[in-house]
Fold this sequence. Notes:
Strand content: 5-15%
Oligomer: single chain
CATH superfamily: 5'-nuclease
Structural class: alpha/beta
Radius of gyration: 17 Å
Number of helices: 9
CATH class: Alpha Beta
Largest sheet: 6 strands, mixed
Number of strands: 6
Low-confidence stretches: 7-33, 107-139
Helix content: 40-55%
Strand order of the largest sheet: 1-4-3-2-5-6
CATH architecture: 3-Layer(aba) Sandwich
Number of domains: 1
Mean pLDDT: 78
Distance between the termini: 43 Å
Amino acid sequence: MKKKKAGKTQGRPQKKALSSISVSPSPGAGWEEEGSPETVLADFSRLTHLVVDTSSFILFQELGLLGPLTSRWQCSITEKVLQELERGPNPPAAKDVLGFTIEPSLTVLSSHTPDNHLDPAKKEGGHGTPRTPLSTASPNTDWELLLLAERSGQALLSEDRKLLRAGEERKLLSLDTLLALVILRYLGTISRACYVQAQEYLLKRNRYSAAYLGFIEQLLLWMEKEGR
Length: 228
């Protein structure tokens, strides 16, 4: 089945496989041992493809930052996500979905796998539960997103802790909107002032664990030290 493309984005070359890092609003044991701020930022900055869930799309829409999101990364949403957005209180305008690839339900994806898909054989140790097969029988929206990310090797952008955990189990690079904004600032896609304003909005709207906010602060402090 042919995919629908709402707009064109430019991919960025991959140079090496990424470390297995998954960060959610309430990180599990082991996230703080994944590496230095420099390593974490370098790994996430090599992202090229993202599967975006409904909640993350809405946050970027509210922040007015869908443009920077899709200009930096090739982003995909599923038809179910689009339907959820259209049924919501603030359905996206046509311009809001420009740059997103709309994936059909349970599409058979290309055999090409970007480096965002982490080879389980390359990860030694780590944390999380053993990988379990996904069922393709009438999946809900979240599981369809996970299946899409797993099949295509795309990273997962979500605010759902359980969904991020499931991505971690499958060795997928996973992140939430707050961390995505940190990466966009690190890459120069958004300004420091833009980031600060967006972070203030997220902290008022969402709840994050103290440990996770401490992790974000470490990244920001390192960036300030390096003049980023």
